[in-house]
Amino acid sequence: MGPEENRSEKSKAEQNATGRKAINGILTAQAAYLIVIIAIGISRNIFPTPELIFIAVAGVMLWQADTRKFVIALLPFMLLLTSYSLLRAYADDISPTHVHYVEMIRWDRAIFGGMIPTVVLNQWLRQTSLFYVVLPLANMFYMTHFVGPFVVAVVLWQRAREHYWRFLGGLLLLSYAGFLTFLLFPAAPPWMAAMHGFLPRGVASLTYGRVFTLMERASPNIVAAMPSLHSAYPVYMVLYIWHVFGRRVWPSIFLPIGVWLSTLLLAQHYVVDLLAGAVYAVVAFYLATRFRRHQATEKVESLDESPALEPITAASDD
User: Fold this and answer.
1) Which of 197, 280, 185, 208 is nearest to 239 (CA)?
2) How much is the pTM?
3) Domain range for residue 212?
C-alpha cells in the first residue's frame, strides 16, 4: 500500500471517529435534556406516561442503525400495550358485575388477625415525622411500574436478544390476564373504600399524582385493584432477569419489596391484591419460559428424527 493510500485510509478513519463523537455528543445532550425535563416534571407532580417514555426512547435511539432496529421491534409491543390500556380504561364501563369493596378487606383481616396492613401503614405515614422522607421514596417505587418494563426490554435487547420477544409476550399475557380479572371482578382500592365508608376516613391516597396513559385520560378506571399489576410487573421482571442473568442481579429483589410497601403506604392496594399479582406474575413467567423450552425440545427431536447421512466410502477401482 502506497503513501497516498495510507493517508486516505487514515483520513477516513479520522472522519469516522469524528462522526461517532458527534453522534455520541448529540445522544448525550438528548439524554441529559430528557432527564432534566422529566426531573422538572416530577418535581411538579407531572409524571411521564408510557407513551411519552416510548417517544423519548425512540427519539434518542433513532440515530444509530442497531438501536433503530430496537425501536422498530418495540413498536408492535407499544401498540399492543396501548390497546390493552384502552381496554383496561373501559373495563369498569363494560363489566357485567358491581364494584367489590368488602371482599379484600375481609381477606386481609382473615390473614392478619383482624388488622388491615394498608390502613395501619397509611395512618402511620400520615402521622410520622419521617413523612417528607418516606413519601417521596414510596412514590418513586410506585412509579417504577410505568418505567420498569421499558428498562428490562432495553437490557434484554442489548445483552440477551433471544429472550426479548418471550419477555414481551409474557408481559402482554400478564397484562391481558389482569384486564380479564378487572372485567369480571372490578375491585375498589383502599382509598376508594374509605371514601365510601368501608374503611376509616383517615385512609387516603398519598400519591403525588396519578399517572394515566393517554387512553385512560378519556375514561380512567379506578376499580382495577385486583390483581395488583403494580405487584405483578416487578415480580415478573425480577423472575425473568434472574432467569437470564442469574444471581448477579440479586439486588433487583428490592424492587418488588419497595413497590409492595409503597402501594400499602399510599393506600393503593390490599395485601391480597399484591399476592394475587405475584401469582399472576409467576404463572406468566412459567408460561413464557416453558414456551422457550418447548421450542428447544421440538428442535432437538426434529434433529434426532432426521435421516442419518450414509458414510462416504472410497470408490473401488474394479
Assistant:
1) 280
2) 0.72
3) 47-296
